[in-house]
Amino acid sequence: MKSAQQNTLGFLLHDASRLLRRRFEARGAGYGLSSSQWRALVYLARSGGLAQARLAEFLEVEPISVSRLIDRMEQGGWVCRSPDPQDRRVRLVRATEKAMSAFEEVKALAGEVYDEALAGLSPAQRAALMEGLTQVVANLQEMDCAPACGPAARQEDDEDERAK
């Protein structure tokens, strides 16, 4: 039985995320990709391609870690690297046709996992959950930006505008 402390927002969000990830990995194991690789593919599929450093930022990992991840994915035919036409130092990573085809299948699989997770919730409860989580994310993103978006940053922006 869980203690009252384990029913806090942090514990519930962490447990839900962990269990969703575990369920998704079990259902998607036939593709041979880890959850980190799937996350990378989602970013690549949605963006059309990213610089390795930018992908590392999105995945919240060090650039060397994303490089190793991309190495394995490239060996499996999931991604390809190419030089950035704007900057020779930058390597762009793109999803291959194989990845894009699998991505469409896995979107459907993810929808099934989400439906399983949301079983027993009415459409109104599902909508309220999504609305609440969206607000939580917005609040936390705003707090992340707070030091850079505070009065001093706004004053600098105003000064920049007057200088123009």
UniProtKB/TrEMBL annotation:
InterPro entries given for it? HTH_MarR-typ (IPR000835), MarR/SlyA-like (IPR039422), Tscrpt_reg_MarR-type_CS (IPR023187), WH-like_DNA-bd_sf (IPR036388), WH_DNA-bd_sf (IPR036390)
Instruction: List the PROSITE patterns hit by this protein, alphabetically.
Output: HTH_MARR_1 (PS01117), HTH_MARR_2 (PS50995)
Could you cite one Gene Ontology molecular function of this protein?
DNA binding
Record flagged with keyword Transcription regulation = yes
Swiss-Prot/TrEMBL keywords: DNA-binding, Transcription, Transcription regulation
Q: Does the keyword Signal apply?
A: no
| Pfam families reported in the protein's UniProt record | MarR
* SUPFAM superfamilies associated with the record: Winged helix' DNA-binding domain (SSF46785)
Query: Ranges for the HTH marR-type domain?
Result: 6-138
**What's the protein name?**
DNA-binding transcriptional regulator, MarR family
Species this chain originates from: Allgaiera indica
